[in-house]
Amino acid sequence: MTMDDSLHHQQASALVSAQNESCYDRAKAIKAFDDSKAGVKGLVDAGIKRIPEFFAAGPEEVLESGPTHLQIPVIDLAGARGDAFRRKTIVDDVRRASETWGFFQVLNHGLGKEVLPEMIEGVRRFNEQATEVKMRYYTRDVKKVRFNSNFDLYQSKAANWRDTLVCIMAPDPPSAEELPETCREIIMEYSKKVRELGYTLCELLAEALGLHPNHLIEMDCAAGHAIFCHYYPACPEPGRTFGTSRHSDPDFFTILLQDQIGGLQIFHQNQWVNISPLAEALVVNLGDLMQLISNDKFRSADHRVLANRVGPRISVACFFSTHYQPSNRFCSPIEELLSDDKPPLYREILVSDYVSFFKSKGLGSGLALDYFRL
Fold first, then answer.
1. Are 162 and 232 within 8 A, CB to CB?
2. Helix extents (H) in the chain
3. C-beta atoms surrounding 313 within 10 Å
4. pLDDT for 357
5. Quick check: helix, strand or coil at residue 189?
6. What pTM, to 2 d.p., does this model score?
7. Alpha carbons 349 and 214: distance in angstroms, whole number
8. CB–CB of 295/258 below 8 Å?
9. What are phi and psi of 123, to 5 degrees?
10. What DSSP element (H or E) covers 244?
11. Mutual angle of helices 84-100 and 184-208, in 10-degree steps
């Protein structure tokens, strides 16, 4: 028996023991799962046929979506620089998408055809290497590079069917040696390119708000970013849990790379709309902080990821915010967007306080932004 096989056997035994007791001990089951440091993939490798009960969402939450013709906007960024007419068209498209959806996909974003599939493969290589190697990165401490399953494992009503490698890449990136060898080079390359796209989006969003192109950049909206590499193994009971529960993002905006499996949905017009994977496209969604500083002109939309019998699903989310840097940055509605007819809708907040509040609630606990409304 290899060390990996032994770990999987120990994990399965600990969870079965916790679940088979006459009085189910949820806290004990969660701790056994966390202590294994093998994540959700460890459960699948152990051969489980039913998900542990702490992954089970309420039956009222796990509802299949009906068919819908709706699709989020797709914006071609070609010509955003150097072509004044095209830029105005793109800004108008960004404005409409940001006001009505809070989500859109972008093409011709500058990351290159080779970078996207290699980033996906890098995440796959990390998650599918020997468990004892991944365990070196498994922690719930705040580190620049960390691996775990469910940041809110001990706070959420139900755990989600995914494992995550987090790399905080700006403004103070980790050394190359701190990054996992299996995906080190591609993470550094992807980080550099996605940061450039982040600054472009900041300019477009600022212009869409009627502000100077550098306004959001000068607010440090893209000064910090972290890459969350999500791995969603195939789930034996996808109708009982989620890949990611319903939530909005606690940042200014997020750039998401997803593979072709699908499962990402946005809540729009009182229904769940599938965000179908589009070849060579990236998904952009606005976060709570963008809704706050725009005084509700732009929207942060609720979204989720369904669990699936097919897998693994792999996605890479890059979150842009200021709380990745050691600062006491405050956030409030932008003064230029306010008037007697449009008073501020939110109180001034410390960005780090907002993120801490969001994390304390866990996913699936409602919109954290409402707590800060005036």
1. yes
2. 3-20, 26-36, 39-45, 84-100, 115-127, 131-134, 184-208, 215-218, 288-293, 351-361
3. 26
4. 83
5. helix
6. 0.92
7. 22
8. no
9. -65, -40
10. strand 242-247
11. 90
| Dist CA 212 CA 204 (whole Å) | 10
36-64, pLDDT tens digit by residue? 999 999 999 999 999 999 999 977 666 55
Structure tokens at 110: 């500058």
Q: In 3D, which of 368, 373, 224, 249 has the Cα closest to residue 305?
A: 249
* 3-state SS assignment for residue 14: helix
The residue among 22, 23, 31, 21 whose CA lies nearest residue 54 is 31
Between CA 348 and CA 165 the distance in angstroms is 32
Query: For residue 49, what are its two tokens?
Result: 């046929």
Range 227-257 burial, b when 16+ CB lie within 10 A, else e: bbbbbbbbbbbbebbbbbbbbbbbbbbbbbb
Backbone φ and ψ of 287, nearest 5°: -100, 180
What end-to-end distance do the CA atoms of the chain give, in Å? 60
pLDDT, tens digit, for every residue of 312-322? Answer: 999 999 999 98
Residue 284, beta-bridge partner list: 104, 255
And the tokens for 312?
């693994």
User: Is the per-residue pLDDT at 10 higher than 70?
Assistant: no
